[in-house]
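Changelog-linked ticket: 6-O-phosphono-alpha-D-glucopyranose example.
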Amino acid sequence: FRRLGLRGMKQRLLVVANRLPVSANRRGEDHWSLEISAGGLVSALLGVKDVDAKWIGWAGVNVPDEVGQRALTKALAEKRCIPVFLDEEIVHQYYNGYCNNILWPLFHYLGLPQEDRLATTRNFESQFDAYKRANQMFADVVYEHYQDGDVIWCHDYHLMFLPKCLKDHDINMKVGWFLHTPFPSSEIYRTLPSRLELLRSVLCADLVGFHTYDYARHFVSACTRILGLEGTPEGVEDQGRLTRVAAFPIGIDSDRFKRALELPAVKRHVSELTERFAGRKVMLGVDRLDMIKGIPQKILAFEKFLEENPDWNNKVVLLQIAVPTRTDVPEYQKLTSQVHEIVGRINGRFGTLTAVPIHHLDRSLDFHALCALYAVTDVALVTSLRDGMNLVSYEYVACQGSKKGVLILSEFAGAAQSLGAGAILVNPWNITEVADSIRHALTMPSDEREKRHRHNYAHVTTHTAQDWAETFVFELNDTVAEALLRTRQ
Ligand code: G6P
């Protein structure tokens, strides 16, 4: 490794996340191509510059043979990534099952799966076993690459059992754990059958981080109410050992977006889009096709707007980019059909022979096309039902330097706490309110747009992914040093 230069520290960092920043596609027996993975965690961590960390994670693909594993390990090493190989069965039980069908909906206040409740209950134990086994497999890879003094930064709900595995192996490991989703109210969390084991494991970390103060508060309440431990302003205390708990709001690398806007390829996209939608206002949605993103609710609110404002028909278009995700999980398959059905109905109702009000794409866009879209659109609609932070809202603001477009933002996204003064905040469940906000955004006077944008732009460009990572690692070192001092006193 090269050495880390975080605030003068000389130290190595092992970042452990379920998903590596690149996903692998097999092109031949020993040939792999790599492409950037989707999601907030990856886009934030890609924005961390000058950090010579190594990444440990799953490449998103099943590689049963040794030739393939060796070739992929080599290809990933060039990106400073180390793969954890998970077989199909474990992916099914741990990733599709426990992570995405149980923890994900629960942490976003959608509760334990509604349909097929009995089947879920029956499968629960085997899925939780697979979850623990998978976490142990990540831990095994960490042990292989760990050297004394390394900082180990575990990420997200997939790896809540990892801090315990690591500390059981070596109590002196410096372990941080960061959650990229909301941590729900303890009243929701306590319905989880494995609530005790997961909390106890997370508390093995030295530092536990969340995007917002509210999530940190919910976590501390869960520990006090469910485990009967003591919550202090610093964190959670158990028999004299303190686990520090704090909020570290994430950001993006805003310079990367600003630089992209100067590229000829992006400028070309910008002029094509401007020409294509001339004479119409353009609203943008960019989401993974996930139930937490509130895509059906957003589209229904747009329908209500069209219904109530016939003078806007044919003068406004909604571009919805819905990036397919977790396609093996039945809930996600149902969502895809539901969204298609609603879009088809609304386009049939309000479209003409030459134009439709909604352009819906079920795919990801390359970075340049995405930056161009962010730059040319008049309004961005981020209507998550719950969202840890939501970095699409940050990316939109970063690209709106000249246009000063309006951000409509769900009050249930973590980003509402940082961009709330500049955005129009909405309750995404209230489609009348969202429809009214669409009208407000489309007709907003330029001085108000300018003022709101200035506020958000200042935030996005000064609270970067780099600051987030530096602050977390700095705090982790500090916490461990203080704990050491305390034990020596
Ligand atoms: C969210 C999660 C990430 C996850 C991403 C994409 O942002 O917090 O941990 O990587 O979604 O989801 P996926 O299941 O494709 O990794």
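Closing comment: Example verified and attached. The longest helix spans residues 117-145. Confidence is low (pLDDT under 50) at residues 1-5.
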